[in-house]
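call fold(seq) -> tokens
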Amino acid sequence: MNMQNIGDNQVYNSVDEIIDPSHTALVVWDVQNMLVNRIFNKDEFTTKIKSVIGQGRKSNVPIFFTRIQRLPLHFDSPARIYAFSKLGFDRLQQPTEEDSVFTIKPELNEIILDKYSGSIFIGTIFEQMLRNAGIVTIVFTGIATEFGIESCARDAFNRGFYPVVISDCVSSPDKMGHERSLENMKKLVTIINSTNIENYWTSISNNDDLRH
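ret:
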């Protein structure tokens, strides 16, 4: 282990330390049909994220699913309405029930957070829940990389958490935007692929089984 004591802080210096299941939560951001059906790599993304979620469950990592909600039109932000119209979303058109269904389904013991913005920290009790549970690392998956994922990861960093993004478990309708976002984040955010994080979580789970 490479953890250092700097002042009164314990600082993790390796990816394995950062993603240890004992202090890590997994966020599955907006994996609803309306977004999953628009991304450039739907089949690959779906396979990878299901696998990571499965290993997270085996490793007892708390899992949070976010769900898009809309404010009543009168109370919505004109700036948001304008921005999303440029992305092809008509604010007056209500999503169908099928659009809002989770493509990857949460299990009964997993948290669903309804949210109204591009940050998991705004208008939710997510941060309070993490601090109550002693969680210091947040692993992000979902859609879209250059919008909600990057916003959340930077917000997590600014609030003192270790943000981790699984590069092949985030996606976007815009492949170039997705790739630029990963490049932009890598100086502040730990970027890891699904194989590496699954292998580490599997090894931890296997060691726990041997101890019992």
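The chain has a mean pLDDT of 91.
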